[in-house]
Design brief:
The complex is a heterotetramer. Chain A is mainly α. In chain A, 85% of the residues lie in helices and 0% in strands. Chain A is built from 3 helices and no strands. Chain B is mostly helical. The N and C termini of chain B lie far apart (66 Å). Chain B has a two-stranded antiparallel ribbon. The model of chain B has no long low-confidence stretch (mean pLDDT 86). By secondary structure, chain C is mostly helical. Chain C has a single domain, classed as Helix Hairpins. Chain C starts with a helix and ends in a 20-residue tail after the last helix. By secondary structure, chain D is mainly α. The chains are: A mainly alpha, B mainly alpha, C mainly alpha, D mainly alpha. Chains in contact: A-B, A-D, B-C, B-D. At the B-C interface, helix 1, helix 2, helix 3, helix 4 and helix 5 of B face helix 1, helix 2 and helix 3 of C.
Chain lengths: 97, 315, 113, 96
């Protein structure tokens, strides 16, 4: 059972790290601000999400696991708000660069 | 050479890189962004140093509040940036750089020549800890063994705030600090400012409460509360209070006042200023920490909003 | 070289960097940021010395750690007061520095666009 | 769970995110700089959670929570600063 959980953790963490990598590649390579924003949100939401999910079996207690989920929830809330506002800023700044 | 060691070396390089960027960046905005990133990396470093209490403080104040304070100033001073660019002459800069390198090298030599383990007060702190009733040695030092420092530090916070307020033009004295933020009530930001603070208040109180036995405490909790208050003000959900409000001034001084009162009571009951009778040490520490949390949250929040810039008259 | 030494060297370099910025930057706001860097370098040195005092299950000497926490809060209060002074100066004079205004074309540095 | 593996993932995420910081250097817009800083925040939170489990420091989650809270707060302030500058440039008063 614990080996199975460890396998789950490994897979989720590797996937999460890959999403971070993809997000950064997007942030660096995409041509304009709005598509870069699109790439960023993948790292923020999915990357961190997978890492949190992967760490859940290792958390030790239900309370600790809930706190891990709360971290993700907070980042989701912040990222969606900031993403909206940033897109507005980028749109007002002029045509895509 | 373990993987953890590589990780720590990378972290040290990152901190240095962020610091160098903060100094070298051309625009002040970029420097402020760099400073926030630097604060974040630094708090990771504090975790690696097994000083989680400090990591919490650095994450909350170093990256968060100081960053926001600087960004506000950068936005206001944007127009003067291009004019204020007269650097010292090159020879002078080289001389300054040489002196700074000298300072760094001297400190580095000290670090390198020190023995691996140094003198420590940890055994004494841990031995005396049961008398205070708290389980976190750092909280024990802050609230009991060096309580006087913490009391004076509260006073410094309030004094700094009085200093900031005194910069207000006479006609605005007693008025509302900062600019008024007017936003449509159904926008993204007001929604955010209504969703986040309940969680943030919970976290702030949790940090204060858990600080008795785990890393955390009134400073860290108070900073989170201050940040939540600032979000509410920035989103225009609630305006900043007029500084002549009696409740505001009473709450601001409640932390130091309760601290001094408990300290004076200690002279009668335990024989010295700021001494706690052992039987009720922990309830007393909590009694001090609750108003302290309020004082810290209000003072930090108001320090960021700045001096009054509007009259207190109702709009 | 242990982690503690490594972080100690990093802290020493931070103090130097911050000092250089505080000495040479023309804008007071940037001096303030640099001064904060310097301060955090000093705090980090404290942390390094505290870590050397690790004892049994305690990860470091709690006394310097508590001092650093107090120090960070006081540094913030001082920064806030300095920023308020700077903003008031800007309101009064329209400038963000006490230096006399530069004569036209006297600047040796490239102006930012 | 092998702590070395967790530390390795933490290091990988940290390095990736820092490469992304090149956007702070390049810009071109302020929005791009804020994005890079936000990514650093998320990456820092992720590696903090990983290090917390690897080194068995349950309090690291509290630091991560504080970071998440304050990073959100700082991003909002960034954007307010940028929009204020935009308003000034375009001559519009108030608004968002």
């Amino acid at each position: 059972m614990s080996a199975l959980l460890d396998l789950f953790t490994t897979i989720a963490l590797v996937l999460g790290a890959l999403f971070f990598l993809a997000g950064v590649v997007g942030l660096l390579r995409f041509p304009d601000t709005l598509s870069r924003l699109h790439a960023l949100t993948k790292a923020d939401n999915v990357g961190l999400g997978l890492i949190v999910i992967g760490l859940l079996p290792q958390a030790g207690s239900v309370f600790a696991a809930l706190k891990l989920l709360l971290v993700w929830l907070l980042v989701l809330l912040a990222a969606s708000t900031v993403g909206q506002m940033m897109a507005r800023v980028a749109r007002r700044a002029g045509p895509p660069r | 050479m373990s993987l953890t060691y590589v990780l720590e070396s990378v972290l040290a390089l990152l901190v240095l890189g962020a610091a160098a960027w903060t100094i070298a960046a051309r625009s002040a905005f970029a420097a402020a962004v760099g400073f926030v990133s630097y604060g974040l990396l630094l708090s990771l470093m504090w975790v690696q140093l097994a000083a989680v209490d400090v990591a919490l403080t650095e994450a909350a104040i170093g990256g968060g509040l100081t960053g926001v304070l600087l960004l506000g100033a950068v936005a206001t001073l944007r127009g003067t940036e291009a004019r204020t660019n007269r650097r010292p002459a090159l020879p002078l800069r080289v001389l300054a750089a040489a002196c700074c390198v000298l300072v760094s090298v001297a400190l580095a030599v000290v670090v390198l020549t020190l023995p691996e383990s140094g003198p420590t007060l940890a055994p004494q702190a841990v031995a005396a800890l049961p008398a205070t009733g708290v389980g976190n040695p750092v909280t024990g030092v802050l609230m009991a063994f060096r309580g006087f420092d913490t009391l004076l530090e509260k006073v410094v916070l309030v004094l700094a705030l009085v200093g900031v307020w005194s910069l207000a033009p006479d006609r605005y004295w007693g008025g509302h600090p900062g600019l008024e933020h007017r936003l449509p009530a159904d926008g993204v930001l007001p929604f955010f400012a209504r969703t986040l603070p309940p969680l943030g208040v919970l976290l702030g109180i949790h940090l204060m409460w858990t600080g008795a036995d785990n890393p955390g405490g009134a400073f860290q909790g108070g900073t989170v509360l201050a940040a939540m208050w600032l979000v509410v003000m920035m989103a225009g959900v609630r305006d900043a209070p007029a500084i002549r409000e009696l409740w505001l001034r009473l709450s601001l001084v409640s932390g130091p006042v309760v601290f001094v009162a408990v300290g004076l009571a200690g002279m009668l009951t335990a024989g010295a200023f700021l001494a706690y009778p052992i039987a009720i040490a922990k309830p007393l520490i909590l009694l001090i920490e609750v108003p302290m949390l309020l004082t810290i949250a209000l003072a930090l929040g108001l320090l960021v909003t700045g001096p009054p810039e509007r009259t207190a008259d109702p709009r | 070289m242990s982690t503690v030494t490594l972080f100690g060297l990093c802290a020493s370099a931070l103090v130097g960097l911050g000092l250089y910025g505080a000495l040479t930057h023309p804008q007071p706001l940037r001096k303030l940021i640099a001064f904060n860097l310097l301060g955090s370098g000093v705090f980090l040195l404290f942390g390094v010395f505290a870590r050397r005092g690790a004892w049994q299950s305690v990860g470091g000497d709690p006394v310097p750690q508590a001092l650093v926490i107090t120090g960070i809060v006081v540094a913030f209060a001082a920064t806030a007061l300095a920023v308020a002074l700077l903003l008031r100066l800007h309101k009064e004079s329209g400038e963000a520095t006490l230096d006399p205004p530069a004569p036209a074309g006297a600047s040796t540095e490239r102006r930012s666009p | 769970m092998n702590p070395e593996f967790l530390a390795a993932v933490a290091g990988f995420v940290m390095i990736t995110v820092v490469v992304g910081l090149a956007r702070i250097l390049w810009g071109p817009g302020d929005a791009d700089r804020v994005m890079a800083a936000q990514l650093l925040g998320t990456g820092g939170i992720a590696s903090l959670l990983l290090v917390g489990v690897a080194r068995d420091l349950p309090a690291a989650v509290d630091v991560a929570l504080t970071l998440a809270m304050l990073a959100a707060f700082a991003s909002i302030a960034f954007i307010k600063g940028v929009t204020a500058a935009q308003d000034e440039d375009s001559g519009e008063g108030g608004g968002r």
